[in-house]
Task: structure prediction
Amino acid sequence: DVQLVESGGGSVQAGGSLRLSCAASGYTYSSYCMGWFRQAPGKEREWVAATDSSGGTSYADSVKGRFTISKDNAKNTLYLKMNSLKPEDTAIYYCASDHWFKNVVDGTARSWGQGTQVTVS
Result:
């Protein structure tokens, strides 16, 4: 079974930075597409960023230029570096994986982590 475990969340002041990690196990990590989503209280889950098996990336307009998605295939770990954080970035952040890139963008990914809380004040 695919397992995804997020970490790195926390509380930070506006303008600060955080780096989220998503440790993956149970499959050939390098061949999968990965994505980050977030869900704020009372709001629907929102796609944040995604990367394909070749390292190509895509971002939601709301985070473009501030967030960077990357992955370390040797460590089976996905990252989300978040800079210039804003209060509206406050949410639970989830990583997701799937064979297909569209699925880690449209939210239909097969595997999900449990989430990590990010609070910006």
